[in-house]
UniProtKB/TrEMBL annotation:
GO molecular function, one term: oxidoreductase activity
Transmembrane segments: none
Organism: Caldibacillus debilis GB1
Protein name: Putative multicopper oxidase
Residue span, Plastocyanin-like domain: 45-175, 385-508
Pfam families given in the database record: Cu-oxidase_2, Cu-oxidase_3
Similarity remark: Belongs to the multicopper oxidase family.
Gene3D superfamilies per UniProt: Cupredoxins - blue copper proteins
Lineage: Bacteria, Bacillati, Bacillota, Bacilli, Bacillales
Organism superkingdom: Bacteria
Length: 510
């Protein structure tokens, strides 16, 4: 099916209004439902799942320190929109087919409100998972100003629930951000980038089997899913009309498995001002930005002196990353900016020279160094089985950092893929990456480095909650655990890997 590019205007998700707000707390109710939505003017309306009747869901905005309560309400049908593989952990025959639990990605939150994968619930809370604790989640928003996002996290079907549309932005603001005089209001736009494939009738396509079907299984998980069209904010290859001035964009890769290496075909710079966890020390001008699934970049693009021009945002990241096929003319195109609106007033916003100091976590303060492997094995059906530290999801908890302690985690990638590794609860800093002899490690269990440490890329030098762990490299991250104790998870954010079975619980103890 050939769809025209730049046929639909970019939608901007509305900001959600709370049900209740007073000086002490803010309360939202957010419904998850099934509905039809137009994703491209040449397609029939597509049945999707979403929050508050829209895909992506509305943007939730909180102020740093604001105490927010959210009741996430499942009003979805009992039958899944997409093929469920019952051989995947957490999705076996004894659980309901449709389950949800919402995780605010990047939030520092008590564990009972974190969206633990086995804290799922069904329509009207009729059935709940073994770790379900309460129907109303509490977010204390202790973070600095940053770009977070919320999405489903139900064990064994996260890849299907997010692909169906259960995702939205969650922005934290603070007084320092307001003082920076960045582009704001209608000049600040979140961009959620995803890939999908459609059937002729406009419905979502998700494979029932991998390329080599698994005999004896009606439905089987695939190693990774890559769609053949790119959507931004729920529209296929949209365009955005802009004025000849500065705009702030919050870029989010919300794809299941696809990485993006974004460029502007005008050759101009992105001025990056923030990473996953908030502002960088100062802006950097970059010609390209690489985003693994779940990574965010806060950028300013300046369209001044470009009146009348059309600028295309392109992608040249291979799939799978880093050694897969290059994108084609469709997956290599993201969206278009049309500098076609008249300037509505003098642009007084700035790209500040200085943003926010980044206190470096001292390596010497780490009380523990953990060496953790990323492994690729085969399951009894001959399928790829991705593991962390060679352990499945329900092996006993082995990572038990103490509250307030600092640790260094060395991620030893023994697979052929780059894995975006995400830790719940905390932000970390990337120390370095270093090439090593993976084959020797597999035989002898010894790390033999084959090159010097490589510092993080300039675009990663800030607070992060997701890091690209590349093949044949040891990636080192450092973080302080807190401010909460309890049960959290760390996992690969390629959703097919996370669902099978590249996710582990960890426990913060007193």
């Amino acid at each position: 099916m050939r769809l025209s590019k730049f046929a639909d205007e970019l939608p901007v998700p509305p900001v959600l209004q709370p049900r209740w707000k007073d000086p002490f707390h803010t309360y939202y109710e957010v419904n998850m439902t099934e509905f039809k939505q137009s994703l491209h003017r040449e397609l029939n309306d597509t049945t999707v799942w979403g929050f508050e009747g829209s895909y992506p869901g509305p943007t939730i905005e909180a102020t740093s320190g604001e105490r927010v309560f959210i009741q996430w309400i499942n009003r979805l049908p009992d039958k899944h929109l997409l093929p469920v593989d019952r051989t995947v952990h957490g999705a076996h025959g004894n659980v309901p087919e449709v389950r949800t639990v919402v995780h605010v990605h990047g939030a520092s939150v008590e564990w009972e409100s974190d969206g633990y994968p086995e804290a799922w619930f069904t329509r009207g809370f009729q059935q709940t998972g073994p770790f379900f604790r309460k129907p109303i989640y509490r977010y204390d928003n202790t973070d600095r100003a940053c770009t977070l996002w919320y999405h489903d996290h139900a064990l064994g079907i996260t890849r299907l629930n997010v692909y169906a549309g259960l995702a939205g932005f969650y922005l934290i603001r603070d007084h320092r951000e307001r003082r920076l005089n960045l582009p704001s209001g209608k000049y600040e736009i979140p961009l959620m980038i995803q890939d999908k494939t459609f059937k002729e009738d406009g419905s979502l396509y998700y494979p029932e089997q991998p390329e080599k079907p698994v005999p004896g299984l009606e439905t089987s998980i695939v190693p990774e899913f890559f769609g053949n069209t790119i959507l931004v904010n729920g529209k296929v290859w949209p365009y955005l009309k802009v004025e000849p001035r500065k705009y702030r964009f919050r870029l989010l890769n919300a794809s299941n498995a696809r990485f993006y290496r974004l460029k502007l075909d005008s050759g101009q710079l992105f001025y990056q001002i923030g990473t996953d966890g908030g502002f960088m020390p100062h802006p950097i001008g970059v010609r390209e930005i690489t985003l693994a699934p779940a990574e965010r970049a806060d950028v300013i693009i300046d369209f001044a002196n470009l009146a009348g021009k059309k600028i295309t945002m392109t992608n040249d990241a291979p799939a799978p990353f880093p050694a897969g096929d290059p994108p084609d003319e469709h997956t290599g195109t993201v969206m278009q900016f049309r500098v076609s609106l008249p300037l509505s007033g003098v642009d007084t916003s700035v790209i500040p020279a200085v943003l926010l100091p980044l206190p470096k976590i001292n390596e010497g303060s780490a009380v523990k160094i953990r060496y953790l492997t990323l492994n690729d094995r085969q399951d009894p059906y001959g399928r790829e089985w991705m593991l962390l530290d060679n352990k499945p999801w329900d092996a006993p908890v082995t990572e038990t950092p103490k509250l307030g302690s600092t640790e260094i985690w060395c991620l030893i990638n023994l697979t052929g893929d780059t894995h975006p590794i995400h830790l719940h609860l905390i932000d970390f800093q990337i120390l370095d990456r270093r090439d090593f002899d993976a084959e020797r490690f597999k035989k002898e269990g010894v790390i033999r480095y084959t090159g010097p440490p490589i510092p993080p890329e300039p675009q990663e030098r800030g607070w992060k909650d997701t890091v690209r762990a590349n093949p044949n490299q040891v990636t080192r991250i450092i973080m302080r655990f807190g401010p909460y104790t309890g049960l959290y998870v760390w996992h690969c954010h390629i959703l097919e890997h996370e669902d099978y079975e590249m996710m582990r619980p960890y426990l913060v103890i007193r």
